[in-house]
Structures are given as C-alpha cells and as structure tokens.
Amino acid sequence: MTNAQQAPDRTTPPEDFVQQVKQVLEHLYDFPYLQRHPLARQFGSAEDRPSETAGQRLRREFIAVIESLDPGRSVSFRAPPARLFNLLHLHYVGGMTVQEAAHELGISKRQAYRDLRRGEESVAAMLWARRSPPSPQEPRASQLSSVQAEMARLEPHPRPTDVRGLLRQAQKAVEQLASQRRVSLHAEVPQEPVIISIDPVVAQQVLVSVLSSAVQQARPGDLHLEMATGAETASLIFCYRPALEVTDAPLVDGVVGQLVDRLEWRLDHDEQSEGARIVTLHMVSLGPTVLVIDDNEGLVELLSRYLADHACRVMPAASGQEGLRLAQELAPDAVILDVMMPEMDGWEVLQRLRTLPQTTDIPVIICSVFDDPGLAQSLGASLFLHKPVSRDDVLTALRQLGVV
C-alpha cells in the first residue's frame, strides 16, 4: 500500500465528529448545553461578534449551514433534492418529530430516518471543512476576567419591558447618593406604559450607572429627568448644572458605554445657557413590532434572525393566552401565528384577535404546517405561510402588509 493510500481523507469527517454534530442539532436552542459542547471552541471567532457567546456562535454557524442546503423556491417542497433541507429544518429547527416531518413530506418514517442521517452527514461535512483549529493554549486569568470576557458572557434575553419601572428602581438605587451630594431628583414620566424590547438586566444597570454619573457630576441643586416618547423613539432626558471640574466629562464611558452600545442606545450631550447640561439617552428606536405566537422557541429565534436587518422588534409569545395579552398591550404591527399549540390553538386565537376591539385591525399571518389558507382567510387572517418558512417568505409577507 502506498503512502498516498495510507493517508487519511481530510475532507471526510470522522464518525465521532458526525455524532458531535448530531448532538448539537438535537440541542440547537439549549444555550447552556451549546456553551459547554466541544464544538463551541472550533467555530467562529469572538472578534467577529464580541457580544456573542461561544454557544450562540455555534448555533448561528449550524443554522447557516442548514439554510445553505435550501435548493430554493424553484424546487418543489416534496421533491427529492429538497428533502434533506426540509427534514433538517422541520425536525431540528422547526421542532417536529421525525414521524411528523415524514408525514409532512409524504415519505415513510424509515425513509425519513435514512434521509435525516444523510442530512446530518452533509452538515457535518460542510462544518468539517470550515472548522477552526483548537487553541493550544489555556486562557490566562487576565483574559478570563477581562472586560471583553465579561461582556461576551452576557447572553441577551430581550423581552417586553416597561422602562418606567426600571427608571423607578434606578432612582431608588441612587437616592442615598443624591442626598449625600445635596441633589434633588425630579422625574416626569408618562402615565401610560412605555414598553420596549430590551434585556431588563442590562438596561437596569445602564440606567443606574447613567443616573449615578449625573448625580455625581451635578452641582448641589435640582436634577430634572423626563421620559419622552414620540412616534418612533423613547428617550430619557437629563437636565442639570455640572460641577466646574466635570464640565467637559462624558456622562458615561468604559464598560457602561459598551453596554449602551450593546443595547443599541445612544447618548447625546448639549450645553445650554447658564452652564446647564442636557443629556438625552435615546433608549430605542420604536420600529415595527412583530408578535410571534408560537410554542416553538426555535422558530421565534429564526424569525428574529430573518428580521434583524429590518429594525423589527420580534416579541415572542409561547402560548395563545400570552399572545392575546401581548397583542392587546403592545398593539403590534403584525402577528405571526402558529396553529398547533396546546390549550388554545391558533384558530381560536385568530378568532379572539378578530373580536377584541384592541386587536381587530392587526394583520395576522398564519404560519403552519397545516396547508389550509382557505380556512385561515375565512377566519380573518391577512396572509398564510406554510412551514418551513424561508427568510424571503417572511419578508415578502411583511412587505405586502406594509410592515417592512
């Protein structure tokens, strides 16, 4: 046997790597599991997206590979060239059982398992070709405790939050400091809730830090706060007279500045007459809100990725009851609604949305494996999308409704 014959095939992944790929696919939305998985150290770089954890980068890489197998709209959903992609998408991204996916594709369960194995091997082969070599060095203590490491460990958990409550908590946190520095806080906030999609833990720390900095920069006297909302923005306005030694100092920098950037907020400084300073914290751009009512967390994550470049706030609701509550509270620009959910299915949710005065005019897109657009339309749905959905499907539907 020649040396060439003895050399291993470096383009074909070994079986243990294929099994690791299958493990990740089976835990695609279990972040703690992904964070600990050996493959998390082999894909992506923290330099690309510093705010991502290793588990998030791993999941992003896997979903990108799955989507690369999509043959496109020109190929029929049940055609053999589309079968691998659809099986992977329905089972691992869409959360269907193998039997449900097989029924949807019109194949036997045995055939589905064979094709799913081929799909897993295809994903493994593509990942094997692009994997990063493991780092030979253990991270130093200084690296583990650095600002960058701490920021990377902050896994975002955005959810609808009334920022008035966060501001009240921030005021309470700095009350003693303000008293010691003889600064009187005066806050004006709207009577109606100011609901935005944020990670409340990170947002709370930013508000406390910004308010603390304002108190420590202000001369003894009044510090006015005003929470303002407009058609497209929500802002917090600080007005105070700074002490002479901090006239040119920024309100926040360093770690707090990074957290402001992470939330995609913005700080503007403006000097007024008589030495007063006005600082505006633009907390969020109130772009279109899309409420996704679906008990499949994976689909919500996928839709969030699809809409990330279109300034949409994707609000998740894991049940029909929660979806009805959020629809009335948030008045979203559109609702994407699943049919097959426990306790209250999508058909009942749709009928209730159409009878409630607060939600009767909200466009509703039914997104389901059940191919029944006629029923959806008769119950008041605006559009129908058949799972699995592609990015183009979602964007086309939302454009048709004037949301994006």
Describe the structure in brief:
The protein has 404 residues and is an alpha/beta fold.
Give the secondary structure arrangement, pairings included.
Layout: H1 3-6, H2 15-26, H3 31-36, H4 54-68, H5 80-93, H6 98-105, H7 109-130, H8 141-144, H9 147-153, E1 159-162, H10 163-180, E2 183-188, E3 195-198, H11 200-217, E4 221-229, E5 233-240, H12 254-262, E6 266-271, E7 277-285, E8 289-293, H13 297-306, E9 313-317, H14 320-330, E10 334-337, H15 346-355, E11 364-368, H16 373-378, E12 383-386, H17 391-400
Parallel strand pairs: 2-4, 8-9, 8-10, 10-11, 11-12
Antiparallel strand pairs: 1-3, 4-5, 5-7, 6-7
Helix pairs in contact: 2-7, 5-6, 5-7, 6-7, 10-11, 14-15
Describe the structure in your own words:
With 404 residues, the protein is of the alpha/beta class. The protein has 3 domains: 9-140 and 146-151, no CATH class; 159-285, Histidine kinase-like ATPase, C-terminal domain (Heat Shock Protein 90); 289-400, 3-Layer(aba) Sandwich (Rossmann fold), CATH 3.40.50.2300. Helices cover 46% and strands 17% of the residues. The chain contains 17 helices and 12 strands. The chain has helices spanning 3-6, 15-26, 31-36, 54-68, 80-93, 98-105, 109-130, 141-144, 147-153, 163-180, 200-217, 254-262, 297-306, 320-330, 346-355, 373-378, 391-400, and strands at 159-162, 183-188, 195-198, 221-229, 233-240, 266-271, 277-285, 289-293, 313-317, 334-337, 364-368, 383-386. Strand 6 (266-271) and strand 7 (277-285) form a beta hairpin. Helix 5 (80-93) packs across helix 7 (109-130).
